Fold each of these.
Amino acid sequence: MSENLASTAPEGDDPAEPSRRDFLYVFTGTFATIGALAAVWPLIDQMEPSADIIAAGSPVTVDLSSVEPGQQITVLWRGRPMFIVNRTPEVLKPLKSPDVLSRLRDPDSQEHQQPAYAQNWARSIKPEFLVLVGICTHLGCIPEFRAEPNDSGGHWPAGYFCPCHGSRYDIAGRVFQGVPAPYNLPVPPHRYTNDTTIIIGENTGDSKYALADVEQI
């Protein structure tokens, strides 16, 4: 039976020949596809953010025009809470008080917890607006905002209280003595684009300051 089937094939036509042709078509097509992908891959790759860009996080633009005097708002940058406070003249006044300064651990912000453009008595670019990383420098809890002075346990001006272990900060984020937190609250890189708009994540001027540079968050 096999002999009859074989005899029906046209003379000179090798049954294996179509398989070789198919292989050449597939082989050629595969390389053409690979070549096309290689040509467009740089374009595809450029569309994907690099690891360092992802780690850095995109800057956040914040409109401050609706933040009332005495009010705090919180925004997220790089997965961390950023506190922004519109400080009144009344709460700014104690920041220069000798009594308050004598009870702070780092009253002159000597520790590297802020950029150079915020290493001043207000720890800010504009005295009325404070921008802080809202994470206690003890064990990473989120401090509570206290808009009014508190006299419990000794005079304490407006600022921050960490309910986890009792650390206290003034309204510039400077830590008091005798509490577990060792450092002032960090100031993130930021800059103003106009009087009421800031960008968190970009520095003022030619500063190269980054949160990775601070002593502790």
Note: Confidence is low (pLDDT under 50) at residues 1-10, 36-55.
Amino acid sequence: MLAEISAFLESIAPAGLAEDWDNVGLLVGSRDHAVRRVMTCLTITQPVVQEAVREQADLIVSHHPLPFRPLKRITDASPEGRLLWELIGARIAVYSSHTAFDSARDGINQRLAEGLLLTNVAPLVPCPAAVELGTGRWGIYWEAITVAELAQLAKTFLKIDQLQVVGDLDRPLKRVAVACGSAGELLSAARDAECEAFVTGETRFHTCLEAEASDLALVLVGHYASERFGVERLAEVLAAQFPPLTVWASRAERDPFRFV
């Protein structure tokens, strides 16, 4: 039943960890809905919906919520309404953990920090209710590495060929902050934690200038790359927790950016 899967997802990424502006939890469907096939994805797009319908998924566990903002109507007159109408017509439920999963004990930011081989990992902005949880992460390297070496670690872990860097590639680092997605607003928190570099998906041009002026290196890996590995891992976790289910990460999903 969908209720059991929802309860498990809530247990690993409690809704209380989500940002106030977010929309998390079971967003489409009935808790009594029978589930046999589950697909995870970063974002629900037309190719993702087509794959879910073609592969007869009963549930999509997406990172980014659909819907995200309140809707006055669900019709095919808007892209968001069209996707929801197709999913409802195919009886495919939607669950999203988004920023709750970002901040969870074993969520995307924790895994990103560990994937970059950081040690003594702790939340960048601790949750008042539980200091071991919170937004972003920071950690240390016992032996200093350079910005260039940090960038290479990110490329290897995230399986990407290119990224963007702000700062001196030869600068040695010991304290590094990470935050998936678009997390430029955490720059000051990284600075307060006395980090020398900040790894995130993307940020604004003026945030890059602010980082440069603050002598804080930035490694921008791309929004998609900073989070997609997390939903691939989540598919493995769900498959292990619910062996009778068929679970997979969307094969149709792609990073919308291309380097030419």
Note: Residues 223-241 form the longest helix (19 residues).
Amino acid sequence: MNVHSHDDTVKRAGARPRALPTKQARSRETLDRLLEAAEAVLAEEGLDAATVPGIAGRAGLSVGVVYRRFPDKDALMRAVYERFFARSLDANREALDPARWEGVSAADAVRAVIRGLVHGYRRHRGLLRALLLYAQTHPDRDFRRRADAMNTETLRELGALILARGGEIAHPRPEAATEFGVLVIAAALNTLLLPEERRTAPFASDEALATELARMYLGYLGLPDGGAKPARRQRTR
């Protein structure tokens, strides 16, 4: 049996070769531009400002291009939400690869994880605020459940790193405690860092906040807080 290349077959048929890979690459590039623009508008201007015309203009695309890909704004927002949290989960899994943490104590792992959480909340503050508001106020109950599951899964990856050092944890239910503790920390960060008007916190900096959250989590798990420097007391006037 003779084997012919795809180009040879197309030429004999008198047809022009199809450039599917190129079209697919351009399509992917356009989609990425659109989603990046949506993230930028959400982060800088909030959920109410994230209109289809505004996002299209930010991406340098026509409104028609947006509607050819998404039937409405809600479908676009869902895509942004799912991509953001899927990327967060992938990044967490890579950063928390057990091979990277060999020889690291549970206490040091807790402090590193919480510093990373605080940094991530600060870095993506506007976008997180908009996406969480979008999910929490969505009329579709099934989507709210899926959105919450995606958000929770990213936090579970963080707790899994601590649970891997379960032999050091004194809490009688290490698995439940590690997950619950991370959820409590996330709730605290949602309250302290995400509002447009940042609420007054009893800590002078993000580093101080991370230190106290780590101390709280370590105490809850029954882990020794070895290596942590005590916070300096500030005089009150």
Note: Confidence is low (pLDDT under 50) at residues 1-20, 228-237.
